[in-house]
């Protein structure tokens, strides 16, 4: 029977590389449970793999910004209702608006186009590994490798001056924090919006050979639409992959048998990337949807207006889908996880992220085969205070 369990969203981890254990207990008891929101709303929590894919593929569940509720307070505040998404902010839209904007970008992120970028990405990785070697041991992997590699890649794709990276990275960090007030978070987001809007205004006058200039020259979008699409791509393009490179390295160093397998057979890197995406699921609280109409789900009726949190970390650890889900296994068949989401909102840049991670992990352990933690594992600061999980820093040593 489902719908009898009533809970709040579990957010406390017992171990740094595993989601809150309460999620697993909820999944086994009731994969569709009632969820108490911070504003008093009684919605739903999805924790199974099967239901996760079902909800994310169902257009009766909306991703529109003005329908969203937050399941917990942020910075000690209940998050107030939000206005509809601004033009171009397609991640917070439903079809047909979402379809319009995504269509204009889909061709830019095909497997073929991303593979054409592979040599440049591998060059960026190699350059930063040289810089790490020149810096000497020990070194913090986050600012020297994990963050700059995807940041430089997305800056080159969009046409963002890399010398301006400190400004948007600092504001992105503020925007993703859970211990800031909602007003502080929105102020940081507004500064990112203005940064990109100013860049778009300059590109309108002096276009370059980059994606933002191409979107402007298409004639299908206003400057505001291009700027807002640019904000989404810029933030997602460096923040998620940067955290995966850092926490993925930490995870492999803490699982020496799995790291040894990758070193012994470099062809396992592709599998390792998919397994790390499954095992870690760095969007640590999952994603949210709102029912547009009454929907029967797992024997219950989710009413129109009900909010639903889909716990992708719990889904990716579902034993009904993945054998020994709480173990990292780089030999596991590399398919089926929902680390990149599912349905029409599945991550647009997933092929780019894969190439960056394959080049990043492969190059890192090839160049530094004796890489190890420079501090005890328990001293590595985890991003429990951020909506995207990872490590704040990762001191490593090498000979």
Descriptive report:
- The chain is α+β, with helices and mostly antiparallel strands and 399 residues long.
- The chain has one domain: Cytochrome P450 (Cytochrome p450), CATH 1.10.630.10.
- The chain has helices spanning 21-29, 49-56, 97-106, 111-116, 118-135, 141-146, 148-158, 165-175, 182-205, 211-217, 223-253, 256-264, 269-280, 312-315, 350-367, and strands at residues 6-7, 32-36, 42-46, 61-62, 139-140, 287-291, 295-297, 300-302, 307-310, 372-373, 395-397.
- The protein has a six-stranded mixed beta sheet, covered by helices on one side. The chain has a three-stranded antiparallel beta sheet with strand order 5-11-10. It has a two-stranded antiparallel ribbon with strand order 7-8.
- Strand 7 (295-297) and strand 8 form a beta hairpin.
- The radius of gyration is 21 Å and the shape is globular.
- The mean pLDDT is 95.
């Amino acid at each position: 029977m489902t719908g009898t369990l009533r809970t709040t969203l579990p957010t406390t981890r017992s171990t740094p590389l595993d989601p809150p254990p309460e999620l697993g207990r909820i999944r086994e008891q009731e994969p569709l449970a009632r969820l108490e929101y911070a504003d008093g709303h009684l919605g739903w929590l999805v924790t199974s793999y099967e239901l996760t894919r079902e909800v994310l593929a169902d257009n009766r569940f909306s991703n529109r910004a003005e329908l969203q509720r937050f399941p917990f307070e942020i910075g000690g505040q209940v998050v107030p209702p939000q206005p509809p998404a601004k033009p171009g902010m397609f991640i917070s839209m439903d079809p047909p608006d979402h379809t319009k904007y995504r269509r204009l970008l889909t061709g830019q992120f095909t497997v073929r186009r991303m593979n054409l970028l592979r040599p440049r990405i591998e060059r960026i990785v190699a350059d930063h590994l040289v810089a790490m070697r020149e810096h000497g041991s020990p070194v913090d992997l986050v600012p020297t490798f994990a963050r700059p590699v995807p940041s430089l890649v997305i800056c080159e794709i969009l046409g963002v001056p890399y010398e301006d990276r400190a400004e948007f990275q600092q504001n992105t960090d503020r925007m993703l924090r859970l211990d800031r007030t909602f007003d502080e978070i929105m102020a940081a987001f507004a500064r990112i919006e203005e940064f990109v809007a100013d860049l778009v205004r300059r590109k309108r006058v002096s276009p370059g050979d980059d994606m933002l200039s191409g979107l402007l020259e298409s004639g299908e979008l206003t400057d505001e639409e291009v700027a807002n699409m640019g904000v989404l791509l810029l933030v997602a393009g460096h923040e998620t992959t940067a955290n995966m490179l850092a926490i993925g390295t930490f995870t492999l160093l803490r699982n020496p048998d799995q790291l040894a397998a990758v070193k012994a057979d470099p062809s396992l890197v592709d599998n390792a990337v998919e397994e790390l995406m499954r095992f870690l699921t760095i969007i640590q609280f999952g994603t949210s949807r709102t029912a547009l109409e009454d929907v029967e789900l797992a024997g219950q009726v989710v009413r129109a207006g009900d909010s639903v949190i889909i716990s992708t970390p719990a889904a990716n650890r579902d034993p009904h889908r993945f054998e020994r889900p709480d173990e990292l296994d780089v030999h596991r068949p590399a398919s089926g996880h929902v680390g990149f989401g599912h349905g029409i909102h599945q991550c647009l840049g997933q092929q780019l992220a894969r190439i960056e991670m394959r080049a990043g992990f492969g190059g890192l352990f090839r160049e530094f085969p004796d890489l190890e933690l420079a501090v005890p594992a328990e001293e590595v600061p985890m991003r429990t205070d951020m909506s995207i999980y990872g490590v704040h820093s990762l001191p490593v040593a090498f000979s």
